[in-house]
Amino acid sequence: MPPALFDLAVNRAAAALRGLQPTDPAQALATWHARTRFARRVPLAAVAAALAVQPPGPAPWHWAGGPEGSWQPGKAPFP
Q: What segment(s) does the record annotate as region Disordered (predicted)?
């Protein structure tokens, strides 16, 4: 899988969960994943693992570097 595709999936998942503020984030993530174009190419477990280590706080963060990447300060270069 291309690193940029993974980054996009994680960043969009993070944005979706921020907007929904679900009571059950795992279920909301699974529902989001099943409805996206990422479902066949980016494993849900990998997206969940990246989201699990997202830094707390109000500052914007984005994932960069593909599956081996990390959270970076600031907004993602792609929405």
A: 59-79
